[in-house]
Amino acid sequence: MAAERLTMRKLKEIFRLLWDERKSAEFVAQSVGCGRTTVREYLDRASRAGVTSWGEIEEWSEADFENRLFSRTRQEMGMRIFASQHPLPDWVKIHAELSRAGVTLQLLWQEYHEQYPDGFKYSRFAELYALWRKKLSVVMRQSHRSGEKAFVDYCDGLWLLDPKTGIKKRTQLFVGALGASSYIYAEASETQALPHWLLSHVRMYEYFQGVPELTVPDNLKAGVKNPCYYDPEINPSYRDLARHYGTVVLPTRVRKPRDKATAEVSVLVAQRWILAVLRDRVFTSIHDMNQAISGLLAHVNSRVMRHLGKSRKELWETLDRPALKELPAVRYEYAAWAKPRLNIDYHVEYEHHFYSAPYKLIHQRLDLRATGETIELFLKGVRVASHVRSYIRGRYTTDPAHRPEGHRAHSEWSPERMKAWAGQIGPKTAEVVGEVFRRKEHPEQAYRSVLGLIRLGKRFGPERLEKASIRSLEIGSPSYRTIFTMLKNKMESAPLGSDPQGTLDLQSPGVKAQTKLAKADHALVRGKGYYH
C-alpha cells in the first residue's frame, strides 16, 4: 500500500463504495484518488480483521480503524504465539538448501520433524517460511539451483585517460553473478565488442573456478544476433565459447526485467562498492584499472549480506562451487566467423588475404572461422579447408590439392578464353589482361582482376576502357586499380602531367591517386626468383 496512510474519511469512502454501492476496486481507486493496490490492501486488512460489511464499519472512529485494521490481526497474533511455543527452523539454512538440486521444502520439513517431533506441522512450516522469505529482496527470493546459472551484463564503467593525447574515454564494466550464491565477478573492458565480451566470459569462469549449466546474458548484440522470443539466434563465436565450456547460452526475454534481476542487482552492487569508490582515481591503462577493481571485488564478495547473515563467498563455497562443471583443460581461443563466397579462382578473401578451397565448390557460400593462428572453411558444417593464417595483404595461401588439373576449374575460365573476351573490347585491353596474368604466380590469382576489368567495360563503356588500358600501359601500371581510378575520375584521355584543354585539375585527388597507384604497382612487380 502507499507509504502515507489515507485519512479516515477516505477510508470510510473506500468501504462504502465497495460494500454498500458494490463498486469495483478500479472504480473506487479512481473515485477516492488512490491506487488499486491500495484499495485491495485495505480490503485485505478488513478481511483479516473479520470485518466484511459496511454496517460494521460505518460508525467507526479513527481509534477503531487503528485498533482493528492497523494493529496485528488476530490471525497474526495467533501465529506469533504459536510460533513461540515451538523451535524455529534456521530459515537462512532452509533457503540455501532449497537451491540444491532435488531438495524440496517437504524434504527439509521431514528433516526438521525428525529433530523436533512436536514442532510445526508441514502447512505451518511452509507458511512461516513464506513469511520470512517475503522480507528478502526480489533477487534473494528467486530460487536458483546450485551451479545452475550465471547472469552477465554490462554497465558504463570508469574513465580511461590516454597519457599521450590527454583524451578521456569511457570504459565498460562487465559484471557476472552466480544465481544461487550471488557471487560476483567484474572487470573493465574498452568496449562491448565481441572479442572483449567473450574473453570476459573466459576470465569469469576462471574466477568462479567452474562453469554453470546456463549462461544468461541480456540481448546484447555481441552475443545475440536475433533476440527472438521463441528462438534467439546466438552469435557463432559465442556459441563456440559455450560449446568449449559445456554451458548453454539462454538469453533473457525482451522486456522481462525479472529474468535478469540477479544481473541488474549485481550491477548495482558493483556500481556502489566498486565504481563509486574508484570514481576519482585516474587510470591510464586497463590493466591498472582491473587491478584496482579486483581488490574491491574481493571485499564485495566477503561482505556479510544483512538478510542472510552470510557473505557471497561463503555461499559460493558451500552452494555453487561444488556444483559447477570443471574448467576445460585448454583455454578458449577467440574465433571470428564470416560467410564468404568462393570465387572463380577458388579462393575466398578474409581481411585482404586470399585462402583456397576445393575448386569444385566455386560459387558456394562457405562458413569461415578465423582464429589468431588458423583459417578454417566449412560447407554445411563439414570442414573443407584449413590454412595457417597470414596477415600479408593481397597475397594468396593456396593448397595445391585444391587446384583443378591444368589450373582450370572450367574451360570458360581459362586464361586464353578470358584474353579472348577482353580482345572483344580492344587489343590494348587484351594486352592489359595478358600483363595481369603474367604478373601473377598462378593464373587463377588473376581471375578476380580480369573479371573486374571486363565488368568495367560494361560500367563505363568499351571505348573508355580501351583508352584507359592504353594509358595504363604507357605509365607502366596495367592493373585493375589504376584503370578503375582513371575511369572513375575521367582521366583516361588526358596525358599524364599535362592538361591541354584546361578541363583537368592536375592537383586533384584523382590525379594524385593515379600517380601514386602507378608508382605502387611498379614497386610491387617482383622477379621470378622472388617466389622460389
Explain what you see:
The protein is of the alpha+beta class. The chain folds into five domains: 64 residues; 60 residues; 175 residues, Nucleotidyltransferase, domain 5 (2-Layer Sandwich), CATH 3.30.420.10; 68 residues, no CATH class; 120 residues, no CATH class. It is built from 21 helices and 16 strands. It has a five-stranded mixed β-sheet with strand order 3-2-1-4-7, sandwiched between helices.
What sort of overall outline do the alpha carbons produce when their principal axes are compared?
elongated
Query: Are there runs of 5+ residues with pLDDT below 50, and where?
Result: 73-84, 225-232, 407-412, 498-532
First-last Cα distance: 85 Å
CATH class of the largest domain: Alpha Beta
Mean pLDDT: 78
Into how many domains do the coordinates divide? 5
SSE class: alpha+beta
Multimerization status: single chain
As a percent range, the share of strand residues is 5-15%
